[in-house]
Amino acid sequence: KVVSGSNPSVANEIQILYDSIITAGTYLAPSIKVAEASKIIENVQRDVNISLVNEFALIFEKLEIDTTDVLNAASTKWNFLNFKPGLVGGHCIGVDPYYLAHKALEKGYSPKVLLNGRKVNNSIPKRIVKSIIHKSKELNINIKSSKILVLGVTFKENCSDIRNSRVADLHKELEKVSLKVDVHDYLADKLIVKKEFGIELIQDLNNNYDIIVLAVSHNKYLKLDYAKLLKKNHILYDVKSVLPKNIITLRL
Fold first, then answer.
1. Which of 139, 161, 201, 239 has the fewest CB atoms within 10 Å, i.e. is most exposed?
2. Residues 48-79: pLDDT tens digits?
3. Alpha-carbon distance 54 to 199, whole Å?
4. For every residue of 98-133, which 3-state class applies, written as one string?
5. CA distances from 241 to 91, 126, 249 (A)
6. pTM (2 d.p.)
């Protein structure tokens, strides 16, 4: 926890208060600007790291190499940073790069890395749908008449927060190619999802889906019997790369 204050005595009192609550300890930054900047770059760094792995995934798809297999092998090196590809939303990681970019532009510097990382991460919903379309042609699945299920609409697993969720973008892209797209999330508030994204969450999971996209890896979704939900000829896209490899059709 990073704390700061314009008045040294007040800052010390704040640090003492936080130290009494936070077992991991606190760090007293020299100014509020430093404290805020440290929080922003923490999120920007994570965003850029994920964008790099997302770009790896896009390259490996063309090379017909499984991204998770590559990451598992690379992770045997002690200093490899094992970030996972996926959708990047939420109220911090997907937003803070724009704050920093805005301040940089105000001061006359045009940032390259952090904004290009944002472009890569924002492109992932379209890329996922593009892969599904390509695979559906291979499997002779008529995607326009397919029944599609998206599992999860929150911005991360095992929480109800939908702020800046990129699943909404994924849903829009799927609706462009299919007449029937169901979305299920047992943690998200149905009314809030409808208000924010215009998506009607379904209450029950039915069977006979042509395509299922696991977008958010809530614990309950890891225990589903996907064979009962899918048709014999199907696509199971694992966005989070958490399902057994032998049951999925595609993953990032």
1. 139
2. 999 999 999 999 999 999 999 999 999 999 99
3. 26
4. HHHHHHHHHCCCCCCHHHHHHHHHHHHHHHHHHHHH
5. 23, 18, 11
6. 0.89
Are 214 and 184 in contact by the 8 Å Cβ rule? The answer is no
Residue type (1 letter), 30 = P
pLDDT tens figures, 9-52: 777 777 788 788 888 778 888 888 998 999 999 999 999 999 99
List the catalytic residues.
92
Edge to edge, the sheet with strand 230-238 lists 180-184, 147-151, 209-214, 230-238, 250-251
CB 160 within 8 A of CB 188: yes
CA 32 to chain centre: 29
CA 67 from centroid of its chain's CA atoms: 16
Say which residue the tokens 């590809």 belong to: 85
Between the CA of residue 97 and those of 43, 77, 119, what are the distances in Å? 8, 29, 11
